[in-house]
Design brief:
Helix content is about 40%, strand content about 10%. It is α+β, with helices and mostly antiparallel strands and about 110 residues long.
Length: about 110
């Protein structure tokens, strides 16, 4: 089974009314109705990545949560403009990989 979880998450939350959210279970069930339980970790990992990019917001207790540190039950929704800007600013501050500038180390 090869599920594009990013596409599933974005499709589901893209259809929601503004401000509404979806549970990780609903996403997993949409991706694989009969064996959704085994996909919950994949949903969480994909949601973390999308939230770091500012493409979605992870909610805990109906408040935005840090995608790097949230634990427990969570929901997903489209970000507000402010949430998207904050996620992009944080990503710019903490690059995952340091890239060499062309011409360095030559």
């Amino acid at each position: 089974m090869n599920i594009d979880m990013e596409a599933v998450i974005l499709e589901i939350i893209g259809k929601l009314p503004a401000g509404k959210s979806v549970s990780s279970e609903e996403v997993a069930r949409a991706a694989e109705p009969e064996h959704w339980q085994r996909l919950t970790g994949h949903v969480r990992a994909t949601a973390r990545g999308l939230a770091r990019q500012g493409r979605i917001t992870v909610l805990r207790h109906n408040k935005p949560a840090d995608p790097d540190t949230f634990k427990g039950v969570y929901r997903l929704r489209l970000p507000t403009d402010d949430e998207r800007a904050a996620a992009l600013a944080k990503a710019a501050e903490t690059p995952d990989i340091e890239l060499e500038t062309p011409g360095e180390n030559q």
